[in-house]
Design a protein that fits this description.
The chain is mainly α. The protein has 4 helices and no strands. The longest helix has 132 residues, at 16-147. The protein has one domain (35-174). The radius of gyration is 64 Å and the shape is rod-shaped. It is 90% helix and 0% strand.
Length: 175
Amino acid sequence: MALLEAAPLGPLQVNATLIVELIAFLVMLGILARWVYPIVIAAAEERQNRIKEQLEQAEKARQEAEERRREAEAETQRAREQAGQIIERANRAAEQIQQEAQEKAREEARRIVEAASRDIDAERQRAIQSIRLQMADIVTEAVRRIVGESLDGERHRTLIEATIEEVEKEPSAAE
């Protein structure tokens, strides 16, 4: 051993302590490699696997969220289309109701005008009839005054009817 201790090799001297430390280091390295490192590596791999699973789950959740967002957008678009259709149907119904109301108003106005026209015609006929009766009375009175009391009932009636027929034939009496 004197040989080993006597040879200085610079800053690193080989002696028994170095050899024992080297053997202890190798034994420790062997123990660590045999029993400790597999546990540490297994824990690291397990952690790595958990992180990988969490990343996969996060990606899956992101994809699901993206799919739900697309579905929500599609549903919103369908709702907008349905709302547009409902508005369109409501507008058409309103237009139809408005047209029906206008048609009813026109029909009512036409009916009122026809009724008024019938009433006017009836009043005209009553006025004409009244005028005829007044004319007959006037003619009778005039004839009685001119001719006097000498006309008998039959002659009197014939004269009145002839006068009424002449009045009816005149253009101003028919209007």
